[in-house]
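Handoff note, outgoing to incoming analyst
You'll be picking up this chain. Sequence as last confirmed:
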Amino acid sequence: MQFSAVYTNSMWVNCVYILSASAGKFGTVAIVLFTALCYTIRVETIREKSYTFFKSVVAISLFIGVLAFVNEYLTKPLLKEVRPSHQYIVNQLQLNHQLDSVYQLSKTDRQQYFELLINNNQQLFNHVDVKVLAHWIEEAGFSFPSGHSFNAYLLATIIAFSLFHATQKKLNKYFWVPFLWAFFVALSRVAIGAHNPLDVVAGSLAGFTIASVFIYFDTTRKLLIHKKE
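Most recent structure output, in case you need it:
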């Protein structure tokens, strides 16, 4: 198996799963709130902090939401890249010839298809952690580019900018920490079998580039902060 973080009763699986989930639906919400909180460091009064926090949450949520929609419903269906996890499942059952037709189904029908295959052939998947199997079933969309990696690098770039320009100078030197988190998120997506390396590289570069452009221009940056540093 080409992915390393899937085996039952492995601490590595648990660590990788948590990392992967940190840039998923609920993890992204938590990171967005943390990101907005980081931007409140740059202002002094309670009123300014409240305003900055609310504005940042709304702006980042809309930003990520729109881009996630484009990625999930336009980019991925257009490129039609099959997930490694799905390829592995059909390989185990020698059903490769069905994969193209399976991806013609709706996402919900694909989820049901892969769930049925796994449940009816449990002996072939006993070595795979149940959390991973559930993730393989849930992540039934196309693969390229990686949405988790995109979210991670987009948020990491925004947080890093905030830390680098924080008024508390002791925080400036830690601007690299968000990028370390984003790197391990991207790595976890390959290790868990949800994506191949090209998926996460493309998602990471897209997230970093779009966030950098967002921060660079005064008009968009003002959605997060009061003034240019």
